[in-house]
Amino acid sequence: MLESIAATRYVTPLREGGSLPGVVEADDLGTYVVKFREAGQGRRVLVAEIIGAELARRLGLRTPDLKLIDLDPQLGVREPDEEVQDLLKASTGRNLAIDFLPGALGFEPLTWLPDPVFASRVVWFDGLIHNVDRSWRNPNLLVWHRDIWLIDHGAALWFHHNWKTADPQRPFDASDHVLAPFATKLDAAAAELSAKITPELLERVTALVPDEWLEGEAGFGSARAVRDAYVDHLLRRAHGPREWLTSGAEPERRGQGRGHGRGPGSVGEFWRGGGR
Length: 276
Ligand SMILES: Nc1ncnc2c1ncn2[C@@H]1O[C@H](COP(=O)(O)OP(=O)(O)O)[C@@H](O)[C@H]1O
Ligand SMILES: [Mg+2]
Hints:
By secondary structure, the protein is α+β, with helices and mostly antiparallel strands. It has 2 domains: 4-103; 106-272, no CATH class. The chain is built from 7 helices and 8 strands; from the N terminus they run βββαβαββαββαααα. The chain has helices at residues 43-58, 82-90, 116-128, 186-196, 199-206, 223-239, 267-272; strands spanning 4-13, 22-26, 31-35, 66-71, 93-99, 105-106, 141-144, 147-150. α1 (43-58) crosses α5 and α5 packs antiparallel against α6. The N and C termini lie far apart (43 Å). The structure holds adenosine-5'-diphosphate and magnesium ion. Adenosine-5'-diphosphate is lined by residues 14, 16-19, 21, 33, 64, 98-101, 104, 106, 140, 142, 151-152, 154.
């Protein structure tokens, strides 16, 4: 189970992304980034955040701690921004809290050269969870205490917005991925990480999602059935044919693939400093 806490003060919205997460203080004296249940695409985003982050952590990738946070209906009463007030009101009850990393900086590839082994692990992991939200425009990586931390897995597992078409072999195009140009050891990363992805591991990870965020999913009889579907999908993707990772990230294609050095405004130009 994820630890449960209660919100004591809404501090400020984070307006960077589309989902309007907020910085919130809690009764354990911690400060958190809260993802609200009723924001944007709703509770499935929170499911993706939990499965994405907790799987990353167990594969050895750094990501802030997650907790479940209870929101009192009074919390937003004095909030002057109407959009925020509506979101807080609608999201009364259980939401997701992500440990706030104070002073963290957005990842900047021009000042931080990622290690190829690390980059390859992240690209393979994002391919596994279908995470398209780690592009060079929007890296969702933070630099904190001299390490890189993975955040924002809400857009991952997007097949769950239409389970009928979920395909464990769906290709993942990593050509836009912020770490793709450094991911020269993908085969090793795939072998290393897939060996860790066991049914037990995935069951432990999916068990962390509260039942209430899984219940009522169309086509499933119970929260348990939805958990089993995530486990099955990720097992097939991790252990089936690896053709789903098709991108310009392989070493032999570096410098030739789409977006790697061709034309003005391409990723290659960005790496060299011309894109900003
Ligand atoms: N745990 C955290 N610690 C510090 N800053 C964070 C944390 N999580 C998010 N942020 C900041 O808030 C921004 C938006 O959060 P993110 O999780 O990416 O949500 P969105 O879905 O809106 O993109 C991030 O780009 C980052 O600058
Ligand atoms: Mg983001």
